[in-house]
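Quick one, C-alpha cells below. Sequence please?
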C-alpha cells in the first residue's frame, strides 16, 4: 500500500512539474496592481480616520452577551479547517483519478485535485502574507485604545497585542471567498454571505479596527487573484488568455488537455 501511495505521489508531482515548466506568456499587470494598491491604501486611511476610534469605543460599550454571540461566528475564519479540506480534496481527487475507469473521468478527477491544490496554495500564501504584514506594521489592538490610542504602531513587533493590522481571520475568509468565486463564479454571493459575518465578528469581539478588517479583505482578495494567475499561466485549475485580467476556471471539456 505504501508503494502504491508513493507511486501516486510521484505521478502527481511529475504532472505538476510538467505544467510548471511551461508558463504561458501574459501581459504584465504590475501597473494595474500598483494603481489599485495606492487606491486601497488611500481607502484604508480614510476608513481608519473616519471609523476606527469611534467604532472601537462603541463596541466596548455593548452588552458583553451580544459581543460573545460572535464568538462561534469568528471560528469560520480560522485557516486550519480550510487547510484540512483542501488537503483532503487533493488526496481524494488523486485517488479517484488513479482508479478512474475512463480517460474522461481521470481528467475530471485530476481537475478536482488541481482545484484543491489551488485552494491550499491560496490559504498558505494569504496566511504567510498576513503574518508578515502584521508584524511589520505592529499595530496595537483595540483593547489597548485607552493606553495607546487607535493609531499606535510598533514596527517589526512580534507581540500578539501589536498584530492588529490586517485581520488574519478576514484575510483567510476573503481569500477563500475569492478563490471559490473564481472557481464557481455563480456561487459568489453565497460565499460572500459567509465572509461578511466573519469580518464583522472581528470588530464586534474587539480584536480589530474596521480598517484592519478592510485591509484583511483587500489582502485576501489580492492573494487569491495572484495565485490564480500563477496557476492559470501553467493551466492548473484555470486558463488565462494573454490579454485577460481574470483567469477562467477550467471545465471538464478543458481538463482532457492536461492530466493535472
Amino acid at each position: 500500500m505504501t508503494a502504491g501511495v508513493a507511486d501516486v505521489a510521484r505521478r502527481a508531482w511529475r504532472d505538476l512539474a510538467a505544467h510548471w515548466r511551461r508558463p504561458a506568456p501574459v501581459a504584465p499587470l504590475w501597473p494595474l496592481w500598483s494603481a489599485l494598491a495606492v487606491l486601497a491604501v488611500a481607502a484604508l486611511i480614510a476608513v481608519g480616520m473616519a471609523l476606527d476610534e469611534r467604532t472601537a469605543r462603541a463596541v466596548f460599550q455593548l452588552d458583553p452577551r451580544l459581543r460573545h454571540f460572535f464568538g462561534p461566528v469568528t471560528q469560520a475564519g480560522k485557516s486550519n479547517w480550510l487547510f484540512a479540506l483542501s488537503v483532503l480534496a487533493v488526496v481524494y481527487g488523486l485517488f479517484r483519478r488513479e482508479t478512474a475507469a475512463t480517460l474522461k473521468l481521470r481528467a475530471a478527477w485530476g481537475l478536482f485535485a488541481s482545484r484543491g491544490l489551488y485552494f491550499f496554495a491560496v490559504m498558505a500564501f494569504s496566511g504567510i502574507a498576513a503574518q508578515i504584514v502584521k508584524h511589520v506594521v505592529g499595530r496595537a489592538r483595540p483593547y489597548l485604545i485607552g493606553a495607546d490610542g487607535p493609531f499606535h504602531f510598533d514596527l517589526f513587533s512580534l507581540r500578539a497585542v501589536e498584530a492588529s493590522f490586517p485581520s488574519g481571520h478576514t484575510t483567510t475568509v476573503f481569500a477563500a471567498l475569492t478563490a471559490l468565486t473564481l472557481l464557481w463564479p455563480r456561487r459568489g454571493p453565497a460565499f460572500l454571505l459567509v465572509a461578511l459575518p466573519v469580518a464583522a465578528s472581528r470588530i464586534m469581539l474587539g480584536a480589530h479596527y474596521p480598517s484592519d478588517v478592510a485591509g484583511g479583505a483587500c489582502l485576501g482578495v489580492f492573494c487569491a487573484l495572484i495565485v490564480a494567475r500563477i496557476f492559470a499561466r501553467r493551466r492548473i485549475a484555470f486558463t488565462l488568455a494573454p490579454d485577460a485580467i481574470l483567469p477562467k476556471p477550467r471545465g471538464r471539456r478543458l481538463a482532457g488537455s492536461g492530466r493535472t
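The CA atoms of residues 54 and 229 lie 39 Å apart. The beta strands are 238-239, 248-249.
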